[in-house]
Amino acid sequence: xxxxxEVTAESPRALEAERWAGAVDCVGGATxxxxxxxxxxxxxVAASGNAGGPGFATTVFPSILRxxxxxxxxxxxxxxxxxxxIWAQLGGDLRPNGLGDGLTExxxxxxxxxxxxxxxxxxxxxxxxxxxx
Length: 133
Known about the structure:
Helix content: 25-40%
CATH superfamily of the largest domain: NAD(P)-binding Rossmann-like Domain
Strand order of the largest sheet: 1-2-3
Strand content: 15-25%
Oligomer: single chain
CATH class of the largest domain: Alpha Beta
Number of helices: 5
């Protein structure tokens, strides 16, 4: 586990100790520059989301000094039949062991309180919002 404060903190350094052989970032914002500056040589990060914000500030050093690559994931143009097949595979033979462990379920009524807890750093594990009965 990595504390959110570590991955969102600004750094005066363009590069930090090599840590990751690759990454998938669905958060964006301040997290993406952290990942880029800590990638190992010739590693790549696939970015697919912007929950942390659509912008990010970094340098070209991870790319030109370590050969790090930033790969964008665009699923909006994938046909629905192909998406369903991919989701079925991810939920089947590619499903990680223990994926349901530590799952917290909230409802739309309890969501505001849950979000306050998440933002305050009191949340752990995975969360799902149950819509309807």
